[in-house]
Write a structure and sequence with these properties.
Blueprint lengths: L1 E2 L6 H7 L3 H17 L3 E3 L2 H11 L6 E3 L24 E6 L8 H9 L3 H4 L2 E6 L15 E5 L3 H10 L2 E3 L9 H8 L3 E5 L2 H6 L7 E3 L5 H13 L1 H19 L1 H16 L2
Helix pairs in contact: 4-9, 7-10
């Protein structure tokens, strides 16, 4: 049984600079491993479809089961009241490689907001800046928290109204599930994994890879100023988390599959 070894989004790989030859080499290299397996577990429907297509597997060999994340504890729906007329809209960025996660783009977008909107926000940054320092400046309150233990990141998630991680490369994105479970609106890339996490935009805001600071600024202005829109997205996201990603549900799916494979 193979768990979460897959072929990731080729569109994202090409955007990173990989070539079609790189992608085909990986497909050939992994063929013996995948063909020998009784079952293969991947985290997205798109990955399952790709493996079935590339290797011509029969149905019943590749299964879509999300990651098992028992450390994520969802908030009650009553906590969504935080979106109703907050004194300041709390925006959160989480990512140790801050440049890869495009913190500079976020900072520029926030600075482009009208003064009246900037006065309504506060930004918190959780990062070890592992891929290089980022100049931090802004005409609005900023808390630079460095690297935090996971429990403290969860507290920041529950405090936040909007998580913004416009990553240029994101194989899955646990941080977006953490935001959903915390009742925050997630803004992230539109790669295939995030498209499923965000349910095509019903449970979050997806950004095109070529999004500009001006475009991101406009998106954030709408979210900051529109409490009803923000709360509706957060409510959809929390429901989506319970329906698809809650660890109790995922755990049951994994136990069922392991039991099934063990009987073969």
């Amino acid at each position: 049984m193979i768990w979460q070894n897959t072929l990731i989004d080729p569109r994202m790989r090409l955007a990173r600079g990989d070539t079609n030859e790189d992608i085909q080499n990986e497909i050939r290299r992994k063929r013996p491993l995948f063909e020998a397996a009784s079952a293969i577990v991947v985290s997205t429907r798109a990955e399952r479809q790709r493996l079935n297509m590339e290797y011509s597997f029969s149905s019943g060999k590749v299964y879509t089961i999300p990651f098992f994340l028992p450390d994520i504890i969802a908030v009650p729906s009553s906590s969504l009241i935080k979106h109703d007329r907050p004194a300041r809209v709390q925006i959160l960025f989480v990512g140790n490689p801050a440049r890869l996660k495009r913190l500079p783009l976020l900072l520029e977008a926030l600075e482009l907001l009208p003064t009246s909107v900037r006065q309504r926000l506060e930004l918190a940054i959780v990062s070890r800046f592992s891929d290089g320092a980022v100049p931090i400046h802004g005409s609005f309150p900023i808390r630079v928290l460095g690297g935090l233990p996971h429990s403290e990141v969860q507290k920041e998630m529950r405090r936040a109204h909007i998580l913004v991680n416009p990553s240029s490369y994101e194989t899955f994105g646990f941080v977006f599930l953490e935001a959903q479970a915390a009742g925050a609106v997630a803004v992230g890339p539109s790669w295939e994994a995030q498209n499923e996490i965000f349910d095509g935009g019903r449970c979050g805001v997806m950004l095109r890879p070529e999004v500009t600071p001006q475009q991101l600024s406009s998106i954030l202005a709408d979210l900051i100023c529109n409490d009803d829109e923000r709360r509706a997205l957060a409510s959809n996201a929390l429901t989506n988390y319970h329906r698809t990603y809650d660890s109790k549900l995922v755990g049951q799916q994994l136990i069922s599959l392991i039991t099934q494979v063990a009987k073969v």
